[in-house]
Design a protein that fits this description.
binds zinc ion; elongated; Ubiquitin-like (UB roll); 3 domains; four-stranded parallel sheet; alpha/beta; five-stranded mixed sheet
Length: 246
């Protein structure tokens, strides 16, 4: 007996599908006894990229056996906020998002740091290191390389579509709904360390006297020890941030 089901993939899971079936209900016949995991796999979608399966509105596991007329919705590991609010997921994966950028996304990494997001980047990281850091730190691997992201070992991934870094950061903010989590100047652009306010006393021996005279607020990177004050580059950076966010 044939089982008729309807399946729909959400968000970046569509990247795995051929263009004619993206972002729509797909009607499909399967054999009796097939699991929803087998069905998903038959579309070429890596199971590691899937976080949530809803069958007729109820959350289901990969080994759920398909029944006639099932309506299946498949969501990626990092769904948008609006899905979480309506879905039945337990242990929602929403948390403090952390990123790792591949070796082609150095400028995106700096932008994300500038906005306060914990973002690893080093152009020496090869694919194996990227995947292992992404998994061990629970970092979302950002890449424009589809082949890299198809690696089944990756559990958190996002395929960046835009080519220009300013557009890329807007894309990531929008996709993960991060605008309200922006904390400008809270992270070091060079090393990703946390930047904190420090008393003048603790830094004055390390910077020029005239800077001390015209500034009364200083911050320091806990990673590399770099000291910051609100000089002219601060204003230009805030301007850039406003341009990205607005
Ligand atoms: Zn630093």
């Amino acid at each position: 007996m044939k089982i008729n089901t309807t399946i729909r993939f959400y968000e970046e899971l569509n990247d795995y599908l051929s263009e004619d079936i993206r972002r729509q209900d797909i009607l499909i016949d399967t054999k009796e006894g097939n699991s929803v995991g087998e069905l998903i796999y038959s579309f070429g979608v890596a199971c590691a990229a899937v976080d949530l399966i809803l069958v007729n509105g109820h959350s289901a596991n990969f080994d759920y056996i398909l029944q006639d007329n099932d309506q299946i919705s498949v969501y990626p590991v990092f769904e948008r906020f609006n899905i979480t609010s309506v879905s039945l997921i337990e242990n929602s994966p929403l948390r403090n998002l952390k990123f790792i950028c591949d070796d082609h996304l150095g400028r995106l990494a700096k932008y994300l740091r500038m906005l306060g997001f914990d973002t690893l980047y080093n152009n020496d990281y090869d694919h194996n290191i990227l995947i292992s850091l992404s998994n061990s730190h629970n970092r979302i691997l950002l890449s424009r390389d589809k082949k890299l992201l198809l690696n089944k070992k990756i559990t958190r991934r996002y395929l960046v579509k835009q080519a220009e870094p300013g557009e890329q950061v807007r894309e990531v903010l929008e996709y993960f709904d991060l605008k309200k989590n922006i904390t400008p100047m809270s992270r070091c652009l060079e090393c990703n360390g946390v930047v904190q306010q420090v008393p003048e006393e603790s830094v004055k021996h390390r910077i020029e006297k005239y800077i001390i005279e015209i500034n009364d607020e200083f911050t320091e990177c806990k990673g590399c020890g770099k000291i910051f004050w609100k000089g002219s580059h601060y204003d230009s950076m805030m301007k850039r941030i406003r341009k990205i966010v607005d």
